[in-house]
């Protein structure tokens, strides 16, 4: 920052900060001065404050018999010295081609230079798994340059937050790569990573921010079962084919508890339950399955905000998050590849918030106990209308949901499925009305918490459930009578009914589906699921090789021509 005076003013704020480094002694590194002033302060008062602040520090350092140090501060531009009379501090610091002189030291004034205030390296670091920055805080920047280094001495003691100059000596580091991602190699095991982020705003370059990993690169886990699946997805699909992935990723708020570790997932080592570890494996799945549409369930808001959204945006995706109801901070997210699709509109509903308005006709058919139980549910549906960038006459309405899980709630899941399909129909009709010359197809993904051959699967496939269906009587005291439901779509499960999409110590079965519009799509490929031997190798999921208790469902669909 030496020889530059930095002015920072946030949009909408009536104050600004002013920073510079000054030294009265060429042998001294100097002192940084930081000021926070009002934009409407008189300019001459602002100049006087700079002068008095510098004089105060310099006179503290003088010897007793030495004369008082005087400081002369002035601002100049191409027209000469600017008078501080009758102008504000804002008028002054935003003048063109402005320089500040403090005695004989000249400063160029830079207003809102690109700035990286904070960044971390996503950890743990594992060979074969891309590393990337997380929790980046940037201001006044349009782009940044990323440089990755590995430590040459594996036992180097590093200070992650504020590296000292001696920590960054070229003799201690080897430059490895440029770019947002760097995938450590086996030869990097035992080394620390360093990341230099240099922000830019047009031609203006900001100060480089450096962060050093707190841990060393480790060997990656055995994911041979996942790699065997990814052999079926060697790259991005080509139109008219597109790939869909649906995945319940196990929210951290459900995994990170003593009860989960000891009762639900006792087979999983503690390190493998940590969400930082699991996120690395999940992102690896996404990267190597090459989906074009991606639906997550049990997506923690913090993971969406800090891990998925910034990382997947760099990988060519856009995405949105919808929180489910209640106090839990997790929900649903949909991502789409921007070279394949563009968003038209999105919306979401938490059902207990709209039961008495949008679903009054259903509520009238239910008894008091069932109404109360439905109103207590946090289930939501997320909807997104996507238009193909390769054929703009093709639009997909994507639905994403996670239904109630209790074993005695088949009737509730049927009602929730009907509500989801109702919202899909209403949204489709809305999009069709606005786009009468286009094909509008349906895709319905999620964790339906319903195994074959119960009513949810039957309803989606057949389009109708009669009032005598056994699922209506799945819970004594909450029976649904005199109600039949139907939907207008022609749907089928793209992956069929695999033996397992959920594999835990206490439960193993198929719960997750991608329902597709059979009128507009053909199934081109279903990515095979892991074998039971592979799933049982470490007793159950999750474990060091599988980051969730669910298995991702991945299919290739093809537009019918």
Please, could you describe this protein's structure?
The protein is of the alpha+beta class and 561 residues long. The chain has a seven-stranded mixed beta sheet with strand order 3-2-1-7-6-4-5. Strands 17-18-16-15-30-29 form a six-stranded mixed beta sheet, with helices on one face. A hairpin with a 2-residue loop joins β12 and β13. α11 (410-434) runs parallel beside α12 (455-462). The N and C termini lie far apart (61 Å).
Q: Topology of this structure?
A:
Elements: E1 4-8, E2 15-22, E3 31-38, H1 43-61, E4 73-77, E5 80-81, H2 89-93, E6 99-102, E7 105-111, E8 115-121, E9 133-139, E10 143-151, E11 173-178, E12 193-201, E13 204-205, E14 209-212, H3 224-230, E15 241-248, H4 252-255, H5 258-264, H6 270-273, H7 275-289, E16 293-300, H8 301-314, E17 317-323, E18 330-337, E19 341-350, H9 360-363, H10 368-375, E20 380-388, E21 394-402, H11 410-434, E22 439-447, H12 455-462, E23 464-465, E24 485-486, E25 491-493, E26 502-503, E27 508-509, E28 512-517, E29 521-526, H13 532-536, E30 553-559
Parallel strand pairs: 1-7, 15-16, 21-22
Antiparallel strand pairs: 1-2, 2-3, 4-5, 4-6, 6-7, 8-9, 10-11, 10-12, 12-13, 12-14, 15-30, 16-18, 17-18, 19-20, 20-21, 22-28, 23-24, 25-28, 26-27, 29-30
